[in-house]
Amino acid sequence: MSTRNKTGGTGKPVIIETADASHTLSVPSLGETYHSRHGAIQESLHVFIKNGFRVTEQSPLRILEVGFGTGLNALLTLTEADREQRSIHYTTVERYPLDTALISRLNYCQLLEEADESLFLRMHALRWNEEHRLTENFTLLKLHEDLTTCHLPGKYDLVYFDAFSAEVQPEMWSPEVFAGISEAMVSGGVLVTYAAKGSVRRALQQTGFRIERLPGPPGKREMIRAVKK
pTM for the whole thing? Predict the structure, then answer.
């Protein structure tokens, strides 16, 4: 079974420490975790920042995240945006928002020197389905929606696909879902994901993406970067 999931509404998430000392959430009833047990921060930096954010040059940069979860990817992106003085419009889709009391116990801001804990907590406290300007460089829109049925309200340059694991919710990784995402992306837009399964590659190729198989984060041999043709 995969060691990833953003929780499908079964079981209460609990905090655990991963190999790089950063926290993730485990759903014991599913035997799943939100991030890699080999290092939550390491994984997000490798997959979404190094191989996604840093290979783009647009400013403003329009990002779509599938799976807000703990907010780690958004926090890392906000930190990068402020460091580079780069304008980011960040849209994230999450069907099962987490309790803010649980979020307040995560240790990401203690481990990341440039991270602002007040902004991290504010991200989670902001109202859903409304756009908010968190900093001069970072605008956030959180959609409390089911990705398989929602309308994506923008044209995105970069997609962080950090959804439920394919083993637990294969419909999230279907050609139909990727087709909807492709329609909401600009030509040449980039999608990055931790997954590298053959079925995921085929679904992306079927919906008009060019696939790159890249070295994965610690504990994972490969990941996928896909470019919209």
Answer: 0.94
